Amino acid sequence: MRTALLGSVALAILSGTAVRAQPIAIVHAKAWTMTAAAPIADATILIDGGRIVSVTPSGAVPQGAETIDAKGQPVTPGIVNSATQLGLIEVSSAAGTRDQTSEAHGIGPGFDVSPALNPNSALVALARADGLTGALSYPSKSDEAPFAGQAALIKLRTDGGILDRRGAAVVAVIGGNKWPKDAGSRAAQWQLLRRAFGKVADGRRGDGGKHGDHGHGDGPPGPPPGSDDAVLGDVLGGRTPLAIFTDRESDIREAIRFAHDFSVHVVIMGGAEAWRAAAELAAAHIPVVLDPQANMPTSFDELGNRLDAAAILQKAGVVVAFGMAGGAIEESYNAGLDLREGAGLAVANGMPYSEALKAITVNAHSLWGGGDGTLAAGQPADIVLWDGDPLEPSTNALTVLIDGQPVSTDNRQRALEERYLPLAKPQ
Amino acid sequence: MTGVARGAIAVMAALSLGMGAQSVSPRGIAPWRIDPFPSTYRPLPRSDFLLTNAIVLDGAGHHLDRGEVLVRDGKIVQVGVSLAHAPGVRVVDAGGRWVTPGIIDVHTHNGTFVVPLTDIDKDSSDVSELNSPDVADTWIETAVNVQDTGFSRALEGGVTTMQILPGSSPIFGGRSVIVHPIEATNIAAMKVPDAPQGFKMACGENPKSQDADAHDIHGPTSRQGEITYIRDAFMAARDYRDAWTRYAQGKAASPPRRDLKAEALAGILAGDIHVNMHCYRSDDMATMLEVAHEFGFTIGSFHHAVEAYKIPALLRNAGTCAAVWGDWWGFKMEGLDGVRANAAMLDRAGVCVSMHSDSAITGQRLNVEAAKAGGAGRAIGIDVPPERMIEWVTSNSARILGMQTRIGTLAPGYDADLVIWSADPFSVYARADLVVIDGAVAYDRASPPAHSPSDFELGRTGAPHP
């Protein structure tokens, strides 16, 4: 029994990595293309060469295409979690399995998590089985306030690597009790942030703005790639967003001022009280990544946590994405399931359904890249077929495609369930 | 008053034996049966009513369409369809909505893990007393801050009864308290009258780590050390219990000197105190069942039982329930083998299983936790119907508290604790529209304010809602 099960797992993993030349047609889908507020009923989704070819109502299936029958169930773009530590943490209480932070002195904004990403993590496989195809994996704070380092955009591929784009964001952390005594006041944290960017901005002005562009141009060579100055230069040059983890209204407003003063793309993460500055955030085009399950005053910075924060922000015109769903135990251990549950909670608290779905597809891609998160022709075919409403946590992902290929949804939990299922006999 | 002989049991004993407050309990009344912190709970204002036009999940495995529930004097009188009732009884039309027993959370730290967390919680938290691995003499109710926002949030999630447990750093964590999450200025006013006593014990990583980390090691640093420590303590408790028995039988002239640690364990040995045992791994649970067998007591429930699905027969034969999560796993070594279908697999195997929270966030949505576990069960071919799944958060949970004849089921004679849901209670979109405790409306989502802020939140949350 056990041998047979293990054999089937091994076969499935092998087939998941096979190169697929054949086009695929998903038929009879309730297709959430995310290009409209309503799904297309009985849609045919054609996929070839890893990309979406077309989505059409009752569309014909080309000869030779492999057909997947959705039987009327929802099909969505792959789900993306905008704040996880997937691939960086295996067992949070076991230090030797954690790579999400640098405690070494002198490693600041240049700290890049991407070399540490583990595609074989059991957490990654479970998230993939839950319909998660992409995520931002972010570093925790470093030794150098207020920076954490560079986050990576990951794609949950099964063929050896999950890194999609290194340096997808530079992360800073600001707030009460966030840093030890040297930067104990958030005023000091903002000062350190401004000083760090001011120094690099001065260097760029000194060489006609070419400094920081990795030496492309006529001026003196820029800072070495990956160095703190280069990384901050990429933020100043508009190539990388600055993700600021912060919660209190005063810090949200200070982040808006910072974004204006330095003309950089800022993304608020955490954002417990962002709803208090919803109009200002919308005007400044600053998106917010929320934990959609947070509704407790967990710290004095988070007294404003509320379940309808997403609805308030979205209504005001702020681009909302979701991450960290449920806090530490959920953000990576259940990065797929609890993100969907969180989006469902946002709907239960006033967010339109299609907007909640956008928060975990289109909006996440608008922040971090990797396609636009729609089921439109030409987009990467990261697609999930569900057995029910994807925002219901009781719903299961039936088929997950990444870059046009059905990937294995085997995971360690399922293997354990199958091993012990014979003991669950009715008495 | 010396703090003895004020509880219901003790009062009766004192009256019958003509003894007032004394530093020892009267002959024949075991000291562990005395509640030094009696309840002062009074039900909220209530009226009799007949609930009609409801989809009823009664917590006893039944599913009634267009069901009715008749409530009188805070008790359920009848559950069925087209009930006859006396004229003048207020009729409440559920409008086709779902009605279930009130949700029961068997494991919360509300009132002691009080947010916002600050430095005082790092230095000296009230979740666990850490002066010894054996703090069996502590009562968590003496630590509970009733202003915790977690209580009103839980009520809004349909929770009508909850057990506040001490934390898991000590091996013997102390007495629990069973409360209704209603507004109060002291815990006695929330405490369920005449509820059985509960006790918290812990095995595995938490207690051994606590002591290994301590500068002055005062407890076991390994699993084998923990088990030895437990056996040693129960041997002493057995002697203590026997000494009380000899005194009660008149074979000893004077009572034993009271020992608050030993008497909690003696109460467990006597079957008067329900054991809530924090264990993750199947081998830890199996070992603890052996220890319980050796000393002749029952472990009511394993909490955080992430590997319970590996030992259904052991649990079933011991009559021990498993309190589990919907999806927490992996954050520590003893949690690596968590599976989401745990509850469904245990239910299929005939084990009493309950969803517990351990978290003020999760504790607002135990119905959704059950739904997650149900969905995971469906994925491996175990399709649990709603009338069965509801038992995971109602009647099975009541059994863990030792209150299965009183709460957790909609049946004649039970306390009228129930919830009217806005939608299928196993949907993420469902909200508790009306929460009834002892026949009284404790929360009505339609009547503003939607929730009463705790004293902490009052005047602090800034501008009103935009």
UniProtKB/TrEMBL annotation, chain A:
Keyword Ribosomal protein part of the UniProt annotation: no
InterPro entries assigned: Amidohydro-rel, Metal-dep_hydrolase_composite, Metal_Hydrolase, Metallo-dep_Hydrolase
SUPFAM superfamilies, alphabetized: Composite domain of metallo-dependent hydrolases, Metallo-dependent hydrolases
Ranges where the record places region Disordered: 201-231
Gene3D superfamilies: Metal-dependent hydrolases (3.20.20.140), Urease, subunit C, domain 1 (2.30.40.10)
Domain of life: Bacteria
UniProt biased composition (Basic and acidic residues): 201-217
Keyword annotations of the record: Signal
Start and end residues of each Amidohydrolase-related domain: 287-405
Signal peptide per UniProt: 1-21
Protein name: Amidohydrolase family protein
Automatic annotation (TrEMBL), chain B:
Domain of life of the native organism: Bacteria
Domain Amidohydrolase, chain residue ranges per copy: 343-443
Region annotation (Disordered) ranges: 447-466
Coiled coil segments of this chain: none
Entry-linked Pfam families: Amidohydro_3
Entry protein name: Amidohydrolase family protein
Organism: Sphingomonas oryzagri
